[in-house]
């Protein structure tokens, strides 16, 4: 009886090789199909902008493909697990390995090791490629696929609070004292949260303290009267530092950059549950690929001639997709404070780790 966790070196390399080949094949199929569908839905928006052509379509594809790879890599690992294990089972290779004295864990060990390497590579790919592509693509989409100046810092549809009052702007450019808002609306609210006055302005600039609104139209809710003014100052408690922290996109920031943003939010007394949950998920998300061989292992064991191989594959697929559903639900709950951020990011991983291990042990018995 073998006491080593891994089978022989030759068998380990053989299983890892076929597993990697199927992961790459499934990932290529998913990305190509989804990229084609994505282009069909967005190519019209890109080409309707004057000056845009084939190069812009290729640019969109280059920015979108990394996002698709990051999102569907765990799915590819799951499908590759099922295809690999079903094939091994049908060819009686699993039976031969079991007859040689290998346990179910030893049969899966090369796949688990390969999936762990994929998880590490996925984390590095997300940090170095996906975050930058996401930031560039979101800035381009916010500008309706028009030309965006390099490092312009343009943000759209921003939203700030000044106590009970709300300040919104269609665009925000610049940082600190040079910040300029355009398409501004200021909602003055009562302590009970009711809007008592709406002030629309063409632009707003920081005048320390407060923000000077220019080109004003005021609407008083109680009297239903409209008036105009050249300028006025609002938001005396809203500082440029708060403006700079107003919109942090965790999908467009690397792990350590997001950590710095969370620290700045906490120092400013801002809510960080959503950012913290996304921060933890930058670790647990790529590691989900490690779970897929364990969840799909049910397809490897059991005699192929029993006629239940297809059912076992469906069960493995259902377990894998159930993980993604629970993971997304838990992350959403953590984003608005329903779960602690760390629990929201890691609870689905450890829950399905225990489920997969339990199913594997029961199958082996």
Report what the structure shows.
The model has no long low-confidence stretch (mean pLDDT about 85). The longest helix is centred in the first third of the chain and has 39 residues, at about 10-45. Helix content is about 60%, strand content about 15%. It has two domains: about 10-145 and about 275-365, no CATH class; about 165-235, Lipopolysaccharide (LPS) transport protein A like domain (lipopolysaccharide transport protein A fold, Sandwich). It is of the alpha+beta class and about 375 residues long. Strands 1-2-3-4-5-6 form a six-stranded antiparallel β-sheet, with no helix packed on it. Helix 7 packs parallel to helix 9 and helix 8 runs antiparallel to helix 9 (about 340-365).
Task: Describe the protein's topology.
Blueprint: H1 9-47, H2 54-90, H3 93-99, H4 104-142, E1 155-162, E2 165-173, E3 180-189, E4 195-206, E5 211-220, E6 225-234, H5 240-244, H6 255-267, H7 273-295, H8 309-335, H9 341-364
Antiparallel strand pairs: 1-2, 2-3, 3-4, 4-5, 5-6
Helix pairs in contact: 1-2, 1-4, 2-4, 2-7, 2-8, 4-7, 6-7, 7-8, 7-9, 8-9
